[in-house]
Amino acid sequence: MKKSVLLLPALLIFLHVALSACEKDPEIITRTIIETDTLVINHHDTVVVTLTDTLTLTEFLHDTATTFLLVRHAETTGSGSNPDLSADGLLRAAELARVLKNVSLDAAYSTNLLRTTKTAQPTAADQSLTLQTYDGFVLNPMVDAVLANHRGGAALIVGHSNTTPALLNLLTGTNDYTNIPETQYDNLYVVTVFEKGRAQVTHLKYGKATP
What we know:
Blueprint (H helix, E strand, L loop, with lengths): L1 H42 L4 E3 L15 E7 L14 H13 L7 E4 L3 H13 L5 E2 L6 H10 L4 E6 L3 H10 L14 E9 L2 E8 L6
Parallel strand pairs: 1-7, 2-5, 3-4, 3-5
Antiparallel strand pairs: 2-6, 6-7
Helix pairs in contact: 2-3
């Protein structure tokens, strides 16, 4: 009888410790999940939408943040180290200008190569902007200039299959974006930047669909 009486307090202590441990574990797991989800939502929210007209794009712009409109250059002839745009590429460059017609741009940037400058030129010309160049491998100066000089405005940035995702990662503060497939030219990323490293991304498609 004495043994039973002595064992009861020990059993109660054991159950209390075990239950306490069980109660704490789910709290830790839940907290981790909430923090992870919140970070994803705050940094970027990618949605694929196909543009059908010039009015659609304005729905994704925000007056309270700086908007970066990112595209890869249009289709090229593929010849040489600095290829020109192909016939399809010229059509896409014209389509980009049409899609952005109702968006009031404050700046237009491209790298200093034929395929990027010729993709950006129709849009820059339509909006009476001087096309500016940037170094695709040193992105911070261009980003800082846009945020400082055009806060609350919008800028078109034409890049490449590797520099465009690098810019997306810089703006969102993530490493989620990888190189664009070489066959894809129809991506348009609307990046709403609240501050460098904190942004929302809307992934759109424009012009002729590519694989």
